[in-house]
């Protein structure tokens, strides 16, 4: 089934979690990004279109300004994001150019709705970039838009933003590149026999409880947010894969039909043989 699902995918949104994009000291993981650029170039050669949604501007800005602890208030994080956005975009431009890829930075607000007149302009811009084989690198413009601020976590919700981008560009697939290599029945760091779930057709209460059971190496909030994103994607009749993103070369195996990560797809959205 995996091979059939992946064979129908043409337009992909790749979301990189900050845990994958950045090292513990908030330095950008250039080795990971270079491998990602290689993978995107390979996918482009196969006729696939790739859009990248990237967080990390706050942490990169903090590193640049020698801020050790990320402030837990909106104005301070907006300042850090304003500093970090250009640095982050420059890394994408430099590393992707090694593989002959052009990138275009796009800063978008979180609050756009289907009724918003600006959304049409955004969609035209993104379509034109893709038509010209330019990889859109999309960052949430938190310097202007604070609507995705999560008071509980004291940070902005980038997972939800990725689902919005997926809808705006009518993606066939949202790839969430995170630390977990899928959804497990139990925490695999505590239970070596924990079974990874290959496919999820519906995000039920029991599935959500599995995400909350993650306690060890993976941030629990990241798993919960990934499942919230999956729930939205399924409602949009789109497909999502949660995959370990520390080595982007895994994506090539995924598109070869290998059972990597966890696939989220409604049964009625499965492609027909």
Automatic annotation (TrEMBL):
The keyword NAD does not apply. InterPro entries: AceGlu_kinase-like_sf, Asp/Glu/Uridylate_kinase, Glu/AcGlu_kinase, Glu_5kinase. Keywords: Amino-acid biosynthesis, ATP-binding, Cytoplasm, Kinase, Nucleotide-binding, Proline biosynthesis, Transferase. It holds the Pfam family AA_kinase. Coiled coil: none annotated. GO terms for biological process: amino acid biosynthetic process. This is Glutamate 5-kinase. It comes from the Bacteria. Signal peptide: none annotated. One of its GO terms (cellular component) is cytosol. GO terms for molecular function: ATP binding; glutamate 5-kinase activity. Residues 10-243 form the Aspartate/glutamate/uridylate kinase domain.
């Amino acid at each position: 089934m995996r091979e059939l699902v992946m064979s129908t995918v043409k337009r992909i949104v790749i979301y990189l979690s900050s845990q994958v994009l950045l090292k513990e000291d908030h330095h950008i993981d250039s080795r990971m990004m270079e491998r990602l650029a290689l993978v995107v170039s390979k996918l482009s050669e196969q006729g696939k279109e790739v859009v990248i949604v990237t967080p990390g501007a706050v942490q990169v800005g903090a590193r640049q300004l020698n801020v050790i602890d990320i402030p837990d208030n909106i104005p301070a994080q907006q300042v850090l994001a304003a500093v970090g956005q250009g640095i982050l975009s420059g890394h994408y431009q430099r590393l992707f150019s090694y593989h002959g890829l052009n990138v275009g930075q796009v800063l978008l607000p979180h609050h756009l709705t289907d009724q918003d007149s600006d959304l049409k302009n955004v969609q035209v811009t993104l379509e034109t970039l893709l038509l010209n084989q330019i990889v859109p690198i999309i960052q949430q413009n938190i310097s202007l838009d604070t609507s995705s601020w999560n008071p509980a976590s004291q940070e902005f919700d980038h997972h939800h933003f990725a689902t919005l981008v997926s809808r705006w560009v009518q993606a066939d697939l949202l790839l969430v590149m995170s630390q977990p290599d899928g959804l497990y029945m139990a925490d695999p760091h505590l239970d070596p026999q924990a079974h990874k779930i290959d496919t999820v057709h519906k995000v039920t209460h029991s599935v959500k409880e599995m995400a909350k059971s993650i306690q060890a190496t993976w941030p629990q909030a990241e798993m919960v947010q990934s499942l919230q994103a999956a729930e939205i994607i399924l409602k949009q009749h789109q497909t999502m894969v949660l995959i370990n993103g520390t080595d982007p070369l895994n994506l090539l195996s995924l598109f070869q039909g290998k059972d990597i990560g966890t696939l989220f797809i409604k049964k009625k959205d499965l492609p027909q043989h």
